[in-house]
Amino acid sequence: ASERTLILVKPDGVQRKLIGTIVSRIENKGLNIIALKMLNVTAELSKQHYAEHVEKPFYPDLESFITSAPVVAMIVEGPEAVSVMRMLIGATNGREAAPGTIRGDYGSSRQMNMIHGSDSVDSAKREIGIYFTDNEICSYGVAL
Ligand code: CMP
Fold first, then answer.
1. If we measure between CA atoms, which residue out of 120, 90, 106 comes closest to residue 20?
2. What are the catalytic residues?
3. SS3 (DSSP) at 4
4. Helices 81-89 and 19-28: crossing angle, nearest 10°?
5. Is the CB of 96 within 6 Å of ligand 1?
6. Which atom of ligand 1 is closest in space to residue 113's alpha carbon?
7. What residue range is the signal peptide (predicted)?
8. What is the phi-psi region of residue 17: left when phi exceeds 0, alpha when psi lies from -120 to 50, beta otherwise?
9. Would the CB of 62 count as within 6 Å of ligand 1?
């Protein structure tokens, strides 16, 4: 079924000039980007997004990292978009991510792992609501 997922190019991806590469990989896969913007994540937004991690020991570092430079937020839509994007992204830790995945090809950090993708359809709904309003979501006409 067609799904939507929330993707972020994280601050390290933006600073390393990987926005274009990441957007290309999503487009090459045939998924539709139906919303896209750059923003600075605030501490408040970080706590909302990472609600399930706020109590974890690594959260303070995660918050300083995610608020350190802009992110590029996107909604990606297509058949099984949530799991397809997770496959393209690779394992959380860049040292364990398979070559051919975004994290496997470009990074070796567990925290500065360049990209975020929602882990389920339910988290995608929640995360999309945090980053985007309905009027920022675009619809495509018939396929070209
Ligand atoms: P993400 O998939 O965006 O979701 C949670 C983020 O927390 C994760 O990517 C990493 O950036 C970070 N993270 C997860 N586990 C750890 C950990 N053990 N130590 C440091 N950062 C982590």
1. 106
2. 116
3. strand
4. 130
5. no
6. 11
7. none
8. left
9. yes
Does domain 2-133 fall under CATH 3.30.70.141? My reply is: yes
Q: For residue 60, give the DSSP letter.
A: H
Q: Is 133 annotated among the ligand-binding residues?
A: no
Burial class (CB in 10 A: 0-12, 13-18, 19+), 136: middle
The token pair that represents 26 in the structure block = 């999503």
Q: Which atom of ligand 1 is nearest to the CA of 111?
A: 11
Residue ranges of domains in the chain: 2-133
Query: What would the two tokens of residue 128 be?
Result: 């999309």
CA–centroid distance, 96 to ligand 1, in Å, is 13
Please give the mean pLDDT across all residues of the chain.
97
113 labelled binding-site residue: yes
Here the ipTM equals 0.91
What span, in angstroms and rounded, lies between the C-alpha atoms of 70 and 76? Answer: 19
Q: Is the CB of 58 under 6 A from ligand 1?
A: yes
Residue type, 133: T
pLDDT at 114 over 70: yes
Q: According to the model, what pLDDT value does residue 143 have?
A: 63
4 marked ligand binding residue: no
User: Which pLDDT does position 96 carry in this prediction?
Assistant: 98
